[in-house]
Amino acid sequence: MDATTVKSIVWEHNTLHLLDQTRLPVEVVVEEQKTVEQVWDSIKQLKVRGAPAIGVAGAYGLVVAMRDHTALSRDAFLEKLQAAADYLDSSRPTAVNLHWALTRTVEAVKASEAGTGAELLKVLTHTAEEIHREDIELCRSIGEHGVSLIKEGNGVLTHCNAGRLATSEYGTATAPMYLAHERGVGFSVYSDESRPLLQGSRLTAWELQQAGVDVYTITDNMAAFVMQQGLIDLVIVGTDRVAANGDVANKIGTMGVAILAKHFGIPFYVACPASTVDLNTPSGDRIVIEERGDDEVTHFGARRTAPEGIKVRNPAFDVTPNELVTAIITDRGIIRPPYAETLREAFGT
Ligand code: MRU
Predict the structure, then answer these.
(1) Which of 49, 198, 288 best tests ligand 1's pocket when mutated (most atoms within 8 Å of CB)?
(2) Which of 178, 204, 240, 288 to mutate to test the pocket of ligand 1 (most atoms within 8 A of CB)?
(3) Which helix (H) or strand (E) holds 52?
(4) Which of 44, 200, 302, 304 is 20 to 30 A from 69, comparing alpha carbons?
C-alpha cells in the first residue's frame, strides 16, 4: 500500500478501520476500531488526525458506540447516543469538525421517526456514511476553486498535513496541488516539518512524493530563508477552525508562516470545507487551543532532547489573525476580506 491508495478511514461491512498515522512514513498499519474508547484514543493519540478526518472518525465512532444497543427503547438509545457524542467530543477541542460531525449525526437520529434501536442505528450509520462521502466531494471542490492559484514554475509552502491523510481524499490545502499536478502544471511544494509531531515531513512529504508531486521537506526554521531566496510564490495551509471574523486556528507555527509571508509579500491562503467555518465563534481568541503532553517537546521520537524536569509549553495550535489571510479557499468558492461579511454571506444560514 502506498500514499496514493492508502485511506485514513475505511468503513466496510459495518466495521471501522483507521490508518495509524503515528507510524508513518515507516510503516502502514491499519487498526480495526472495536470500541468507542478505542476510537476516542485513536483521535487523542493522533492515529487519526486532521480536522475533517476526526469529524468522519467521530461520526463512525458513534456507530461503534451504539451497534450493540439496538435492543434499547428510542429514549434510552438517544440518551446513550448523546453520552457517546459528548465523550468523543472530549478527545480533542480545537478542530470544530469533530463537534460539527457529532452534532449533525445526533441531530439526524433525533429528527428521524425511527422507533426502534435497530431503525435508529440505520439512520445513524447512514448519516456517518453521508458525512464521509461528502468530505470527498467537498475536498475535490476546494481543489477546483483553488487550482488556478498555482501557476507553472511556482513554489508553494505548506505547514503540517492538510492532505489526503487528514481527510477522506484530496485533502484541503493539498487539493489545489493534486489537481494542478493532474493537469500537468509543474510546481514545487515546500513542506514545513511541523515540529513537534512532524506531520509535514512524515505525512505531507510522504503523500505528495508518492503522488509524483515535486516536494522538498524543510525544518520549520528554514521557512524565512526559502522565502527570502524567492523560492515561494504562495502559501496554502489547512485549518481546524475559522472564526466568524476570519481568524484561523491551525497547527502551531502557522501564524509564524503567515507573518513571514506578509513580510515577503507572499499571498497566504487557507483551505477548508464549510464544516470548518464556525460562525458561532466570533473571533480567534475564543478558540480553545489544545495543550498536549510534555514528551512531545522534550523528546524527538523516543530520544530525550531536553533536560529531565524542564518546564515545557506545548500548545498544538495557534491562531492566525484575519489580516494576515489573503483568502480562504472553500468548497463554496474563494472567500476574501472583509471576512466578517463574506463568511456570513457564504456560510450563514
Ligand atoms: O494535530 P493535527 O495533526 O490534527 O493538526 C492538523 C492540522 O493542523 C491541519 O492543518 C488541519 O486540521 C486541517 S486538515 C485538512
Answers:
(1) 49
(2) 240
(3) helix 51-66
(4) 44
